[in-house]
Amino acid sequence: MVSRDVLRTERRETIRQLAFRLAASGDFADSQAIEQILCRLYGVIETRRLFVDLRIRAELDRRCILARQPPTGTAL
Fold first, then answer.
1. How far is it, in rounded angstroms, from Cα 3 to Cα 44?
2. If phi over 0 gives left and psi between -120 and 50 gives alpha, with beta otherwise, what is residue 74?
3. Using one digit for the tens of pLDDT, what is the confidence trace for 17-56?
4. How many CB atoms are located within 10 Å of the residue 15 CB?
5. What is the pTM of this model?
6. Is residue 41 in some structural domain?
7. What is the C-alpha separation between 47 and 28, in angstroms, rounded?
8. Separation of alpha carbons 73 and 53, rounded Å
């Protein structure tokens, strides 16, 4: 039997991985937009446990910005 702690840890990791994939997609402006989507998918409590970490938010914001920038150095 798998303990609840293991299941919670796996769920948090699933949420974290999806958050980073969404940030890399370029479809979201910032971590707040990603948080809203994940709250709908996984619930507010589980999602907020991840987003309370300001380092996670900052990294997601950084990845969102990078993913939304146009490519530089286009070859002719």
1. 22
2. beta
3. 999 999 999 999 999 999 999 999 999 999 999 999 999 9
4. 20
5. 0.84
6. yes
7. 17
8. 35
Calculated CA dihedral for residues 41, 16, 18, 9, nearest 10 degrees: -70
Is residue 32 a part of any domain in this protein?
A: yes
Instruction: Provide CB contacts within 8 A for 26, sequence distance 6+.
Output: 64, 67, 68
User: CB 50: neighbour CB atoms within 10 A?
Assistant: 22
Which range marks the domain in which residue 12 is found?
A: 4-68
**Residue 20: partners with Cβ closer than 8 Å, 6 or more residues away:** 59, 60, 63
- State the DSSP code for 71: P
In angstroms, the CA 25 to CA 48 distance is: 21
Specify the number of domains making up the chain: 1
